[in-house]
Specification:
single chain, three-stranded antiparallel beta sheet, about 65% helix, about 0% strand, Solute carrier family 51 member A, membrane, transmembrane helix, Ostalpha/TMEM184C, transmembrane
């Protein structure tokens, strides 16, 4: 840790006159990124107005939450907290699209859930199918809800520890708090993503007319870009792979690079999700359409 801090100090010391200056390219870059973030929020606000006017009441809240993942992440720095709620809301969205809890149980009463899916059990093909009941549906919701509840708690805890000087991402000692909090949050993330994957695998055929596959792809893309990409860039910055560039240290430059990429990426995703969610929200037929596809993931009860 001391050597890392020494590298940052020496980097800035070598360029004392550049510490408070930003070149023309930097000004243009930040202007363009600010414009993209502003346009993303305007598109999102317009989409919220459309959803409020055209979408049934039981779907308004979840669609607004899910649809806001890209513009909110691209505009603000509350990445983990907001997306933890989106994970839970996307699961609720899929349930609401088939008629809510009652509609889901009625539609899937003769089927079973395939649980050998990622990110937890994609290699465990021997796992048995699980009957679809109120209890199993409650457990799926609970698995995603715990992340929406505990992620903000651990984020606030990390901020409190950071203000006390006991939370440092560069401190990988066994006595450091970061080495315990971050892996635990990672486990909570994997547990929360599993129920969403289970629900998607089992409902993708029934919801294919509602473009659930590209919607799920956008949800997964936001996950990878906002969580995995940011973590990789931060690790590279802490290891010194990303060099310092005054007026920024290596850690600050890595964080800045991550935010710049996210603004551009979330701007594109915002435009794509607008096309996916801007449609007429007619209810699905009461009965499932006949489907002879052998790859369907909803298996009938033997």
């Amino acid at each position: 840790i001391k050597s890392y801090q020494a590298r940052q100090d020496s980097c800035l010391d070598r360029h004392p006159r550049l510490q408070r200056k930003l070149d023309i390219f930097g000004l243009i870059l930040y202007s363009v990124l600010t414009f993209m973030a502003a346009v993303s929020m305007l598109v999102y606000i317009e989409e919220c107005i459309y959803i409020y006017r055209k979408v049934p009441n039981n779907k308004k809240s979840v669609i607004i939450w899910v649809n806001g993942a890209a513009p909110v992440i691209g505009t603000m720095s509350c990445l983990g907290i907001y997306f933890s709620i989106v994970v839970f809301k996307f699961l609720i969205l899929m349930v609401e699209e088939v008629g809510g809890d009652e509609g889901f149980l009625k539609r899937a009463g003769k089927h079973k859930l395939k649980i050998s899916t990622g990110p937890c059990c994609c290699c465990c093909l021997c796992l048995p199918y699980v009957a679809i009941t109120r209890r199993s549906l409650f457990l799926l919701k609970l698995g995603s809800f715990q992340f929406a509840l505990l992620k903000p708690v651990f984020t606030i805890l990390s901020i409190v520890l950071w203000t006390n000087g006991t939370f440092d991402l560069a401190d990988l000692n066994i006595t450091g708090s970061a080495i315990w909090i971050n892996p635990f949050v990672g486990i909570l993330t994997i547990i929360a993503l599993w129920p969403v994957a289970i629900m998607f695998i089992n409902l993708r055929t029934a919801l294919r007319t509602l473009k659930i596959i590209p919607k799920y792809a956008m949800y997964q893309l936001v996950l990878v870009l906002s969580q995995l990409q940011t973590a990789i860039i931060n690790i590279l910055a802490l290891k010194g792979t990303i060099a310092c560039a005054p007026p920024f240290s290596a850690a600050a430059r890595g964080y800045m690079l991550s935010q710049q990429l996210l603004i551009l990426e979330m701007f594109i995703i915002t435009l794509v999700t607008r096309l996916l969610y801007r449609r007429q929200y007619d209810p699905l037929p009461e009965e499932e359409e006949h489907d002879d596809n052998e790859n369907t993931k909803m298996a009938p009860v033997p």
